[in-house]
Specification:
The protein is an alpha+beta fold and about 170 residues long. It is built from three helices and seven strands. The protein has a five-stranded mixed β-barrel with strand order 2-4-5-7-6. The longest helix has 30 residues, at about 15-40.
C-alpha cells in the first residue's frame, strides 16, 4: 500500500480575490504607517513659556515657543552672533540661546517665535528666530497665548493690528 498526498485543490476565484484584497490591505496599511511616521517627524508644536513649564516635551523634539522678548534680557556675545534672551508670556519665562543674525525687527518687548530644542540645562536652543513684520503685528499664537493666560490688555494691539484685541490675519 502506498500512500499518496491528497490532490491539491485549485484556488477558486473567490479565494483568489480574498488573497488579493488581503495583500492590498496590508500594503495600504504599511504605506499609511510610513506616511504617518514621516508626518510625526516633521510636526512642530507651538508652546508658550507657561505651557512649556507645565508639560516639558522630550529634549530631542523640535518645538516652537512664542511670547514677548523680556525687557532687559537680551545679552550679545562674540560680536553679536551669540545671543541670549528670555521669552515671556507675562506669567512664566524661558531662557533662549541663538547663534546667528537676528531679524532686523527683533527687539525687547516685541512678539517673537523661536524654533529649536530644549537643552539639558533647561535653556531653549533656538535654530530659527522669527520676529513680527511691522509695528502693529503680533503672531496669532502669541496673542492667543496672552489672552489664555489672562495677560491680554483690552487696548493692546494684536495679530490683526486692531486695538480691540481681536486676533486675525495680518
Amino acid at each position: 500500500m502506498s500512500q499518496s498526498a491528497p490532490p491539491r485543490r485549485a484556488l477558486t476565484a473567490k479565494r483568489r480575490r480574498l488573497y488579493l484584497l488581503l495583500a492590498a490591505g496590508l500594503t495600504l496599511a504599511g504605506a499609511a504607517a510610513l506616511i504617518l511616521n514621516a508626518f510625526q517627524d516633521s510636526l512642530v508644536f507651538f508652546l508658550t513659556p507657561t505651557e512649556l513649564k507645565a508639560k516639558a516635551p522630550p529634549r530631542e523634539r523640535v518645538i516652537r515657543i512664542g511670547g514677548l522678548v523680556e525687557e532687559g534680557s537680551v545679552r550679545k556675545a562674540e560680536g553679536g552672533l551669540q545671543v541670549r534672551f528670555a521669552i515671556t508670556d507675562l506669567t512664566n519665562r524661558v531662557e533662549v540661546t541663538y547663534r546667528g543674525i537676528l531679524p532686523d525687527l527683533f527687539r525687547e518687548g516685541q512678539g517673537v517665535v523661536a524654533q529649536g530644542q530644549m537643552d539639558a540645562d533647561g535653556v531653549f536652543a533656538a535654530k530659527e528666530v522669527l520676529a513680527k513684520h511691522d509695528e502693529t503685528y503680533m503672531p496669532k499664537e502669541v496673542a492667543d497665548a496672552l489672552k489664555k493666560s489672562g495677560q491680554w490688555k483690552p487696548g493692546q494691539k494684536g495679530a490683526s493690528g486692531a486695538k480691540d484685541g481681536k486676533a486675525g490675519a495680518p
